[in-house]
Amino acid sequence: MSNYAILISGRGSNMQALIDARLPGRCAAVISNRPDAAGLAWAAQRGVPTAVVDHKGFASREAFDTALARAIEQSGAELIFLAGFMRVLTEPFVQRYTGRLVNIHPSLLPAFPGLHTHEAALQSGVRVHGCTVHFVTPTLDCGPIIVQAAVPVLPGDSAAALAARVLAQEHIIYPQAARGILEGRCRLKAGRVVWAGDATPATLALRVPARE
Ligand code: GRF
């Protein structure tokens, strides 16, 4: 797999981290479901092909996902990285891209699936929070885990401060996971993530950042 697409809905800082990482593959397209996504201009400026599939133009999730799949096919991408893509994908779409559809989620899954993860982490009182790169399965935020990074929850943290600490780790682990997949060192096998060779989970599956 050497051509990949990145799907965004907004700012696109994870998209930037993936593109800046000079991964061993070609970013065939950045596709947004929102025409006003800030990340589109950033990608276009760097010569990356961009496309918009505006979900508002479709009567159903199925129709939107069909158009999205068509845009992905047209780009030639075989692998898809969701990077702040704020649409729930239908089961047929997810099944079509089994093992080729990857997401980053701002929590240590399986804790805090869904939205507002940093608020939920603060509310729950956890001392450790983080982010997860995982293969996408039909159940939201539930797929096999590729890499995680942990950060401390500090006294007096606001959701914004915690989000920023987590985001810095997202920008490290997403390119790391993407590189593993593109180089064929990381893949999905029987519903579990397998890292090949010396790229063992001891070095790749969990990052713990240095003391802040
Ligand atoms: C990130 O926190 C990501 O984990 C979540 O949405 C946010 C997107 O940020 N899925 P960005 O658009 O990549 O800057």
Describe the structure.
By secondary structure, this protein is of the alpha/beta class. The protein has two domains: 1-97, Rossmann fold (3-Layer(aba) Sandwich); 104-212, Formyl transferase, N-terminal domain (Rossmann fold). The protein is built from seven helices and ten strands. It has helices at 13-20, 38-45, 61-75, 91-96, 117-124, 159-182, 201-204, and strands at residues 3-8, 26-32, 50-52, 79-82, 101-105, 128-135, 145-152, 186-189, 192-195, 206-207. The strands form two sheets. Strands 3-2-1-4-5-6-7-10 form an eight-stranded mixed beta sheet, with helices on both faces. Helix 1 (13-20) packs parallel to helix 6. The longest helix is centred in the C-terminal third of the chain and has 24 residues, at 159-182. The protein is globular, with a radius of gyration of 17 Å. The termini are far apart. 38% of the residues are buried. It binds 5-O-phosphono-beta-D-ribofuranosylamine (GRF).
Question: Summary?
Answer:
The chain has 212 residues and is an alpha/beta fold. It has 7 helices and 10 strands.
